Amino acid sequence: MHDSTADALIVGAGPYGLSTAAHLGNLGLDVRVIGTPMEFWDTGMPRGMFLKSEPFASSLGAPVAGATFTDRHPGWRAGRPIPLRTFVEYGRWFAETHVPDTEDAQVVRVERDDRRDDYAVELSTGEVARARAVVLAIGVRAFAHTPAELAALPAELATHSVAHRDLSRFEGQDVAVIGAGQSALETAVLLADAGARPQVLARTQRLAWNAVPVPSPSLADRAVRGPHSGLGRGYRTWIWSEHPWATRLLPDGARRHLVRTTMGPAGAWWLRDRLDHRVHVMTGRVVTGAEEAGGKAVVATTGREGDRWEHKVDHVIAATGYIPDLDRIGILAPELRERVRLTHGSPVLGGYFDSSLPKLYFTGLAAAASFGPVMRFVHGADFTARRIAAHIAARAKSGSVSSKSSVTRADDARDAPPYAGTTPPG
Predict the structure, then answer these.
(1) CA distance 390 to 142
(2) Pick from 36, 44, 22, 93: which is nearest to 424 by CA?
(3) Which of 41, 42, 87, 110 is deepest in the core (most CB within 10 A)?
(4) What are phi and psi of 302, to 5 degrees?
(5) DSSP E strands: which ranges in 256-395?
(6) Which of 254, 284, 318 is the last residue before a domain boundary?
(7) In a domain, 258, yes or no
(8) Are residues 91 and 17 in the same domain?
(9) Full strand arrangement of the beta sheet holding 134-136
(10) Residue 408 pLDDT > 80, yes or no?
(11) What's 245's DSSP letter?
């Protein structure tokens, strides 16, 4: 039981939460981290998965040297994919080393007390913790997007890819995987490895694959093609990856387009050879509906020429990404959600990831609408952590009681989702 009011309480112990906590602790602030380190990565990702990001871009953010992934694994060079288990172990080592006091509990509700200028946070233990600032580092689980066309299927016949850690349950079954990105393609391969009969239904006319990385490009090659960054290769990519603050300078529509089109659905280069004859791939198929028939799922698709197919399978897995939507963050009290200024379902953030509510911060995918596509990946954690920690520390020192966030008026439209098809950070 904690009797005092913490300087900050972080909801979530994934890469963004742990990184932010490490920076806050280094500044001497009293911080509480609620959550099991790397829990989502351990339970929300399938066994046998590899990270899509390169080793140098798979690090949590620490305020001291020696804590990157390649510091922990110096032999891991570009072009060698990282197994999920190795990354989870790295994240837990980071927690033990830099954030040793995480609390194995869940946040049930977050409320604000304007009179005290702090937050009351109810925990699953029954405690009501108090904190001057709250950082929502909740990851992507709450934002899992399943197309409306699958809504008629019961839960036992249709799930999102985030629901599956162990795909062996589908051994001997016909499984339709919806999507064309890394999540869909790797899920299909892992299903085949588990003895299932997967088929990929992709709306794209052909699958896209990421290029094989060049470990040591020449000076001329770097000059022409641009530098390497956490998001890939190229000058613009380098800006969005290494200087996310620049994204906030763009108009809202330009930011949405950037997030929607940067790092679109594609498979990792190392997965291409594993997507073999065991996986039936059908491109150019748009899912138009689905229904249950005789205990099976029947998925209707339409092709480019208007031809209609029905795919009868034992199960459907929607590997269709994540769409940020504040209303799906159920731990926020309704009155808090109403006070957070939004743009297309995402919070409008100031330069330090601060929302329109005093000292309420958002990280990861929820921050992509303000800081761009790098927020979809682990690589954005260090920049995020440094900005948030600096802001909270400055306010703790000054005793400021109100947010001075530089935010602009934003439309709360819920029209075409801008992030469909994105993959979890990493």
Answers:
(1) 27
(2) 44
(3) 87
(4) -125, 140
(5) 280-282, 286-293, 296-302, 308-313, 315-318, 342-343, 346-347, 360-362
(6) 318
(7) no
(8) yes
(9) 31-34, 8-11, 134-136, 360-362
(10) no
(11) G
347 three-state secondary structure: strand
| Contact by Cβ (8 Å): 9, 121 | yes
Number of structural domains found in the chain: 2
**Is 255 part of any domain?**
no
At 285, the amino acid letter reads: R
- Coil vs helix vs strand at 365: helix
114: three-class secondary structure by DSSP: coil
pLDDT digits (tens, 9 = 90+) for 152-199: 999 999 999 999 999 999 999 999 999 999 999 999 999 999 999 999
Looking up tokens 């390649």, which residue turns up?
70
Question: Which residue reads 């939507």 in tokens?
Answer: 325
Q: Are the CB atoms for 32 and 24 separated by under 8 Å?
A: no
Residue 382 CA neighbour count, 13 Å, CB half: 18
Q: Give 229's strand partners.
A: 232
CB-side neighbour CA atoms (13 Å) of 221: 8
CATH number for the domain including 198? Answer: 3.50.50.60
| Tokens read off for 225 | 């093609």
Question: Which residues, listed in sequence order, are joined to residue 394 by a DSSP beta bridge?
Answer: none
Sheet with 128-131: strands ordered across: 107-113, 118-123, 128-131
Q: What is the distance, to the nearest Å, from the Cα of residue 122 to the centroid of all Cα atoms in its chain?
A: 24
Tokens of 234: 């190229």
Domain of 347, in residue numbers: 8-143+322-398
Instruction: pLDDT band for 225, please (50, 70, 90 cuts).
Output: low
pLDDT band at 92 (very low <50, low <70, confident <90, very high): very high
pLDDT reported for residue 3: 67
Contacts of 331 (CB under 8 A, 6+ apart): 11, 107, 108, 109, 110
